[in-house]
Amino acid sequence: MEKTIYLIRHGETDLNKRGVVQGRGMDTELNETGWKQAEAFYKAYKHVPFDKIYTSTLKRTHQTVKQFIDDGIPWTQYAGLDELAWGIYEGKESTEEMRTAFENMMAGWTKGDLHLKFEAGESPLEVKERQLEVLEKLIAENTAKNILICMHGRAMRLFLCLLTNRSICEMDTFPHQNTTLYKLHFDGSTFNIIDFHNTDHLKYFCEQD
């Protein structure tokens, strides 16, 4: 059955604003800007007849799509959509040492060393495994034609690779910012991106200021 997937990143949190690493272990809430971004997305897409909402288990995704949930659209949380766990770096302010560590990690991932992870964290391969379970549910849910998914930046990049059958080494080809939209069409066998990194809805955010 054909489906249209609206895949967005959560709105801004204070840790986003400060450049602090969040990850799976930080259950942060939206800040004022994040709530405005969520309102802007709702204004732009409330006309879409969503059948289902999928989010991670973390509050910042729930809050971003709260108005859709409040409209009574069926909502399911999946741990498989949680952000990649950054381990010992979660909740820490950025330092030169940390930036170097992240640059080295990203370089390793791009080269194909997808088993690499920070201490107490997750590797891209481990995130892919939990995302595969969500993908099975996404395809198996035959009655849902329009699905809204809210998740996290790094996890979203990995999920887009999974949906479009790309190597997860290519994850950084998918840019994002808070409430970025990727719209995909599923024809029954493959997913194709029909709207890439769309932030047009943020014009509504500007109108509120």
TrEMBL record:
Coiled coil: none annotated. Keywords: Hydrolase. CDD domains: HP_PGM_like. It comes from Paradesertivirga mongoliensis. SUPFAM superfamilies: Phosphoglycerate mutase-like. Its EC number is 3.1.3.-. GO terms for molecular function: hydrolase activity. It comes from the Bacteria. This is Histidine phosphatase family protein. InterPro entries: His_Pase_superF_clade-1, His_PPase_superfam, PG/BPGM_mutase_AS, Phosphoglycerate_Mutase. The keyword DNA repair does not apply.
